[in-house]
Amino acid sequence: MFVKVCGLRTSADVDAAVSSGADAVGFVFAASPRQVDPATAGALVAVAGATLTVGVFLGQPVDEVRAIAEATGLGAVQLHGAYPKDAFTALADPRWQLIRAVPYSAPDLRVGAYGDDLLIVDAPKAGSGESWDYASVAGLDGQWLLAGGLTPASVASAAATARARGVDVSSGVESSRGVKDHALIADFVAAARAAAVLSSGRQPPGTASKPT
Ligand SMILES: O=C(O)c1ccccc1NCC(=O)[C@H](O)[C@H](O)COP(=O)(O)O
């Protein structure tokens, strides 16, 4: 089970996620209460060490996404919204993985269809904490993460229902919007690890050969 904790803003948040055993930590560059600036994110990337660092974008131009990824040393770029396949092609780079984040109702849920290394299947509004019908994606193949409204209490059953190989959380490990609760992060990672899922490994194979 691959576990990503998203929307981290402080070095204490990153420490909490890494020490809990998260496989990836996410930093939001989109307009959000969780938004961080590139300088802050660069410092947090250093704190994360070997843990995969993911930059989250929504609607920013490709040139801006690339500039931030280069400046901060991100290990992965996560694109939400209406980025066309050309944007993924333009952003392909051996220095980072490409993550395509889509609502569960998106027309194309094939992993890699846009040249993405990993797919995140999410609620219609990313980062909203809203759950959805996880069973509707239970037939999905490949390397993808389940997101949207997951909590320490729900993650095991949600992952089993969706037959997900990995999970992504933000709202479910917060005490208030944008403020991470470190005990909830630890609870979430432990609950996800305990989930009975199809995967036998922690790292999606599509990410194994890429820099982290
Ligand atoms: O977190 C945000 O505010 C955000 C804003 C714009 C694009 C993406 C955003 N977040 C993405 C995530 O935090 C996760 O990938 C995912 O949506 C999980 O969200 P949640 O339902 O809050 O657990």
UniProtKB/TrEMBL annotation:
Instruction: Provide this UniProt record's keywords sorted from A to Z.
Output: Amino-acid biosynthesis, Aromatic amino acid biosynthesis, Isomerase, Tryptophan biosynthesis
Enumerate the spans annotated as N-(5'phosphoribosyl) anthranilate isomerase (PRAI) domain.
3-190
MF term (GO), any: isomerase activity
- Record pathway: Amino-acid biosynthesis; L-tryptophan biosynthesis; L-tryptophan from chorismate: step 3/5
The protein's superkingdom reads: Bacteria
Q: Which Pfam families match?
A: PRAI (PF00697)
Which reaction(s) does its UniProt entry say it catalyses?
A: N-(5-phospho-beta-D-ribosyl)anthranilate = 1-(2-carboxyphenylamino)-1-deoxy-D-ribulose 5-phosphate
EC no.? 5.3.1.24
Question: HAMAP family from the xrefs?
Answer: PRAI
Q: Which family does it belong to?
A: Belongs to the TrpF family.
Q: Which PANTHER family match?
A: N-(5'-PHOSPHORIBOSYL)ANTHRANILATE ISOMERASE (PTHR42894)
Protein name as catalogued = N-(5'-phosphoribosyl)anthranilate isomerase
Q: Which species is this UniProt entry from?
A: Actinophytocola glycyrrhizae
Q: Upper lineage ranks?
A: Bacteria, Bacillati, Actinomycetota, Actinomycetes, Pseudonocardiales
Q: Which gene encodes it?
A: trpF
